[in-house]
Specification:
By secondary structure, the protein is α+β, with helices and mostly antiparallel strands. The chain is about 20% helix and about 35% strand. It has six helices and 24 strands. The strands form six sheets. It has a nine-stranded antiparallel β-sheet, with no helix packed on it. The chain has a five-stranded antiparallel β-sheet with strand order 3-8-15-14-11, with no helix packed on it. The longest helix has 19 residues. It starts with 7 loop residues before the first strand and ends with a helix.
């Protein structure tokens, strides 16, 4: 893990490559890459556990947290620098070949990436740092360690104040009221939920309702999307003014275009292909959505006499989705609990990976849009 310190703007694009500052693990892990598993996940986060025998390290990978959080059980933590030698550990300078052992519940380490803080939430432990680039606990540890990049000494105050409260997952929800949609993030927290320290991007901050924002001087990290600044609390509500556009454009076509629009419309509707069984969801859905627009355009230009032909075609086409003999038929996939193209349940190449949950938002969005036109 790490925070990229390289960021440039060429006048068109921002470039910020990924950067590894540190690696973390435990001495008992046998190095088998298969010895890890996802314990839980949600729409934003995942909890991953690494294990060998009875020794485990569980990491709560929750976006937006300034700290990384690791829970150890019967395991000896070890940190490995990915950015050169360790030059300082808790204020002790480490020259070539040197090491330092420190006991406590807070540690400060420096390598070429900068300064990181290590917090123990489960009492004192002993760590030995070597100039060669490792920090190793003196014995097996049972508890939680958190790490965070210290960009400025002035940031240490807020990091020291809130390190003991950590997120383990998040629920994402939304509600609508008129033309306002409110997006809600609610984090599951160990500790005091009101004192959960998270980071916001600019697009969060301008939409958050009743936020608890510490000073932007208290903590900041520069990312591709701009500076991230702190927010306190485990609940965010972000209100967005939604478009009022529904079926059609906000203004009618210019009168000078009507004759050509109607001529094109008549031609397209008169030459609709025969209703046939669909062979996939992707191209089938795109075609449905395109044809459904013809009915809406006909309504706008006052040619309601053309609408029913389009609706009949849509109904006939969508009907195949409910025919079990169809090649591409919706099926309930029990492994993950969703609707897929039955033909693709065991083949990622069918329908652009539909059976593996790729691109469902527009595969099905096309079909839902066409169904809405039928209902209209």
């Amino acid at each position: 893990f790490g925070i990229s310190a390289s960021r440039d703007f060429d006048g068109v694009s921002i470039h910020q490559p990924t950067q590894a500052d540190w690696a973390i693990g435990f001495v008992e892990h046998n190095g088998n890459v298969q010895n890890h598993k996802a314990l839980s996940w949600d729409s934003q986060s995942v909890t991953v556990q690494y294990f060998t025998g009875a020794s485990t390290m569980t990491s709560y990978l929750v976006p937006g947290s300034p700290y990384l959080t690791f829970s150890f059980s019967g395991a000896t933590p070890i940190f490995t620098s990915r950015q050169g030698a360790i030059t300082s550990f808790n204020g002790q300078t480490l020259g070539t070949g040197a090491s330092a052992t420190v006991s406590g519940n807070k540690f400060q380490v420096v390598n070429s990436a900068g300064t990181y803080l290590i917090y123990s939430l489960s009492g004192s432990l002993s760590l030995t740092a070597t100039n060669a680039g490792t920090i190793t606990a003196g014995s097996q540890y049972n508890g939680v360690l958190r790490l965070v990049k210290l960009n400025s000494t002035s940031h240490q105050t807020i990091l020291d104040q809130y390190f003991s409260n950590y997120p383990t997952g998040v629920t994402t929800d939304y509600v609508f009221s008129g033309d306002v949609g409110t997006l809600r993030f609610t984090w599951n927290v160990v500790g005091n939920a009101a004192n959960l320290l998270m980071l916001t991007w600019p697009h969060h901050r301008i939409k958050m309702q009743n936020p608890n924002f510490p000073s932007t001087n208290s903590l900041s990290y520069l990312t591709t999307k701009g500076y991230m600044y702190p927010a306190l609390g485990n609940m965010w509500s972000m209100a967005y003014n939604l478009t009022t556009i529904t079926w059609n454009a906000p203004r009618s076509p210019d009168a000078s275009c009507s004759k050509n629009l109607i001529a094109g419309l008549q031609y397209e509707i008169a030459n609709l292909p025969a209703v046939t069984q669909n062979g996939d969801f992707y191209f089938f859905g795109g075609h449905l959505a395109a044809v459904s627009r013809l009915a809406l355009i006909a309504e706008v230009v006052g040619r309601n006499d053309l609408v029913q032909t389009v609706v009949n075609w849509l109904e006939g086409s969508i009907g195949y989705l409910f025919n079990s003999a169809t090649t591409a038929v919706p099926a309930y996939e029990t492994g993950w609990g969703g609707i897929i193209n039955r033909a693709g349940y065991n083949n990622v190449w069918v329908d652009y990976g539909n059976g593996y949950y790729n691109d469902h938002h527009f595969h099905y969005g096309y079909i839902l849009a066409a169904a809405a036109v039928i209902a209209k």
